[in-house]
Task: structure prediction
Amino acid sequence: MAELPVAKKSVLYCGVCTLPPEYCEFAASRKKCEEWLKDAHPAEYARLYNDQAITQKLAMTTLSEDRVAKEAAKMEKAMSKEEARMARELEKKMSSKVVIKRVERNKRKCVTSVFGLDVFGVDLKKTAKTFANHFACGGSVSKNPQGLDEIVVQGDFSEEILELICKNHPEVPRDNIELTEEKKPKKVAA
Result:
């Protein structure tokens, strides 16, 4: 017996909350989802948010008036929490520093460590590989004494790394990048 071919359905997903547009009303970023749908897919927006669709949705609900008000207040609170969370994340990003440190190993050898890029959403492994390829030296991601990830590049490339970060990662503000130097203490002859 021959099987009938099944037609594939194409499902639209929201570019903001990644849910189907029918479920965006349950997300915390409902207004942003609505704006995205209006810009990206006007026909779908008209289908979901025209006056007839809204009155039809209201007719299907069995909530009392006070319950509707509670649900609206709950959604408003969730949206304000989401906006506050996003504002805190942005403030954290703007207050955090990227530290480029030149560490002297022995007499003329040194390494350059870069710490704090992960806060800005930079992929450390890819960036370490970029540094290693660009400077033709060893570059890796390792844990620092505080237990956090940092990029370690063999050689003194602190100024060049600063320029490369500014060029390749515009999301990292130049004001948030610090250059420091760490030297080993000299041994006192007895």
